[in-house]
Amino acid sequence: MSLWYNEYINFSDGSRTFLNISRMNRMDKEKTGKKLPRRKLAQAAKRMVDTAMIHPVKLGELSVEEIAKRLNVSTSHLSRAYVEVYHSPLQEYIRLIRFICFKVRAHHSQPTTVKALLEWMDVRSVSHFIKGYKACFGHTPAQFNRQCREKWKIEQQEMQKRRQQFIKK
Predict the structure, then answer these.
(1) What is the distance between the alpha carbons of residues 82 and 37, in angstroms, rounded to a whole number?
(2) What CATH number does residue 12 fall under?
(3) Are 94 and 64 in contact (CB under 8 A)?
(4) What is the residue range of 110's domain?
(5) Which long-range contacts (CB under 8 A, 24 or more apart) does 84-92 make?
(6) Which residue of 15, 68, 111, 151 could cross-link 75, Cys pair, CB 3.0 to 4.6 Å?
(7) Tens digit of pLDDT for each residue in 65-90?
(8) Can you list the alpha helix ranges (DSSP code H) found in 13-140?
(9) b/e for 140-156, b at 16 or more Cβ within 10 A?
């Protein structure tokens, strides 16, 4: 039976309970004296980051320390478990998810400034974000935002032309 962070577990007798990894971790320690396997711990951490991607405002608050606190383990144990399973640091994955959230938001929203997008995402260090973003994608957030605004303007012009053609008919 696979246990993840925050999900319902159905038992064979028909009963159902809501469990989370931190509660299971405490229960495992009490019963067996052992912690959850590293794979489950790493999967739970990854799932927390992926869930935060749905609500990017919470993504700015997310850190390895916060995840470890929620999972009731030490940061070093969580980091080692994550690297062992996914072969890259958890902090790097969190940064990548922040960059992807920025790209999605810039691409799918009406034209806005980079500063406004980063404030919406609760990014604390703008220069650090820009430097990491450029290293990851090869261009700055402002360059990407500019491209998105140009595409948005072209799409708006095309929609306007279609509306005028439709009205003429």
Answers:
(1) 11
(2) 1.10.10.60
(3) yes
(4) 7-168
(5) 84/38, 84/42, 85/38, 85/39, 85/42, 85/43, 86/42, 86/46, 90/45, 90/49, 90/64, 91/63, 91/64
(6) 68
(7) 988 888 889 999 999 999 999 999 99
(8) 21-32, 38-54, 56-59, 64-71, 75-86, 90-108, 114-120, 126-137
(9) ebeebbeebeeebeeee
